Amino acid sequence: xxxxxxxxxxxxxxxxxxxxxxxxxxxxxxxxxxxxxxxxxxxxxxxxxxxxxxxxxxxxxxxxxxxxxxxxxxxxxxxxxxxxxxxxxxxxxxxxxxxxxxxxxxxxxxxxxxxxxxxxxxxxxxxxxxxxxxxxxxxxxxxxxxxxxxxxxxxxxxxxxxxxxxxxxxxxxxxxxxxxxxxxxxxxxxxxxxxxxxxxxxxxxxxxxxxxxxxxxxxxxxxxxxxxxxxxxxxxxxxxxxxxxxxxxxxxxxxxxxxxxxxxxxxxxxxxxxxxxxxxxxxxxxxxxxxxxxxxxxxxxxxxxxxxxxxxxxxxxxxxxxxxxxxxxxxxxxxxxxxxxxxxxxxxxxxxxxxxxxxxxxxxxxxxxxxxxxxxxxxxxxxxxxxxxxxxxxxxxxxxxxxxxxxxxxxxxxxxxxxxxxxxxxxxxxxxxxxxxxxxxxxxxxxxxxxxxxxxxxxxxxxxxxxxxxxxxxxxxxxxxxxxxxxxxxxxxxxxxxxxxxxxxxxxxxxxxxxxxxxxxxxxxxxxxxxxxxxxxxxxxxxxxxxxxxxxxxxxxxxxxxxxxxxxxxxxxxxxxxxxxxxxxxxxxxxxxxxxxxxxxxxxxxxxxxxxxxxxxxxxxxxxxxxxxxxxxxxxxxxxxxxxxxxxxxxxxxxxxxxxxxxxxxxxxxxxxxxxxxxxxxxxxxxxxxxxxxxxxxxxxxxxxxxxxxxxxxxxxxxxxxxxxxxxxxxxxxxxxxxxxxxxxxxxxxxxxxxxxxxxxxxxxxxxxxxxxxxxxxxxxxxxxxxxxxxxxxxxxxxxxxxxxxxxxxxxxxxxxxxxxxxxxxxxxxxxxxxxxxxxxxxxxxxxxxxxxxxxxxxxxxxxxxxxxxxxxxxxxxxxxxxxxxxxxxxxxxxxxxxxxxxxxxxxxxxx
Length: 912
Prior knowledge:
alpha/beta, seven-stranded mixed β-sheet, 29 helices, 34 strands, 18% strand, globular
């Protein structure tokens, strides 16, 4: 036998060969444990860090382990079965164990059905749901196919002239065409909101989970989802589905037309207690409405008890716990006592369609599974068992409800029946942590919390599929009070961290396994932090969206205040695991009162990726990954009602100034026009403040081959004594073309260079590149250089310039003062209070005018420059403060290699 692989190599194989996307997610959140032993509610496993740990398992196989892991008495039955070499696979024979198990199930569930039932065996819950749906369709098909046969005799009589046509104004052909139209419509299954019934094609088609919308579902059966908030309207909703069906009858020797009704509804598929939907038990009003519909239309009421059945709610059937009278019950999970894969469809005898007997599967009705299922039913119906489930479940629910009372601002509700319980967390949209909001926006909040409880408190839980904000707990009937307290202790710490917006504390085990970072827990409340994200609500006049992302990785602490004290070298390796994994999310929503009483809503659509990773994707021919992310962000902005979308940071360059995206009917802009306007104003102000006239100055434009850079050079021509166009060697020919054009229209001396050393001969430098790394280093400068205007996002100036060249005034320009606003707008951007980036300001100006066509696309146009300047003046927008070197954030971890100033061998260029 070969030696077992290490957890890391096994995980790599799992990701590569089994579940690539899910495996990456598990590794990111350290849910990639390898478990090797289990007993009762305990499970032993090897953590991702290689240590062997005993864990409290309240996940319970998604409800499978009602009697705990490896129940001893059933293990003995399994051993005996194989020791005696009993027959496991004996298809097409009398299956004694199946017969006995079915008889026992019919007896046990007779109080539910009030008559005998017939049992159809399957291997999984999804397969059983498929069988139940097929049974409902058989009844529907028989009803539909039987209709033409009763019409056939009358049609023959008309053809042979034995009867005459007694209708005027309508022909036989028209009646037959109408019959065909009505009868050929798609059959309909009624389901409930938040429902989940499995992952086969038909089962997914009958589910109501937002996470399944990207998966294929059945096209043959239509699903109608009933609104759980309006059960009083259900009957009328179903009645509206009924269509008039004309049919032929004989009256007094003539064939005439009568009118009937045809309902395409084949059945109702419901969960008495919704598991994946968030642990919701159907209320009395739901039960009454379902029974009324089933009675009026003679429909099969199918109860999906795969997760909630067989005693888990404290009743043998979960239907008993809510007073529902089903026609079909689907069982699974606990039916195999955690040792075999088995499910069953129990059908009221009076409703049974005999053709269902033709269905079967290779592994259904096997002797071992049926034997264990029979014993499970006998155990589940015992009074002592059901009493224990109810008592332990109520005790656990009480402790969860006490926790909810202590954290009413964090928790919505603790709920459930028996040992099927859930704890719902409030939305994190108002949480001060942008990172928590990012995880929630990607349906990962529940898995993040599960990781915290598993790795920090040794408790294994999972969120519900359709509502990741609900943690579910499904322990075995053997769960002890001390184990419940272990859960409560972990949940209490988790709730405290969520309340304070402390993403760093929640995730510390993911990026600091060696406990290098120590936090002072008394100083970790970020609710009142000035940079905390905002999520305003209220009436608005206009809505805009704007892409945001970290301009530099060092800004993570600004983006999420809880991460400010975490060194880059500690957090970066873990953070980068998630790049390319997260979809765009709504980070912030700020309402800005404008002149004239209008309120402008600004929605910051955040990207997880950093500039370096985006550029890396483009250099490695993976641009589609980033463009897909941007398109997803545009879809989110459209769904939020945005009229205009701004491309911030590197997104305008990566989207080829917006040309690579479908604007989806919104106005799309790079913001370059107003960025140019404010940058020119900033240089003029700087020269004036330093009493050095521009007409006497030599000015370098770094990035002069770009959109803004070229326009900037055109503005400087005729104003400055000399202009040097600086760019990378690959853009030299383009720089020469710009220079030639400028020489023809201006007497200003124009030069071109691909060597950063030319900056040393300049009085002022304006840097407008799109490089992800630093471009201007201390060794590029001399004592002659008076000021650098850094308009780039991310910034172009190496922070070392601040300390090694104190004579140079470094200004971060292009910032705009928002009229009547003194807060922070966009925590991902290092702007001062009351300010925003010029590109966002342009988006806001377009939004105030509902400008739904592209604006700053391609070369900047004179008429648009005038327009945006006029609009800014009319709306009260103006150039904001110019932040000097003393306010620029210093980064001591800068890699010296990153600041190399040789463009020919630079590692800092954008490559675009």
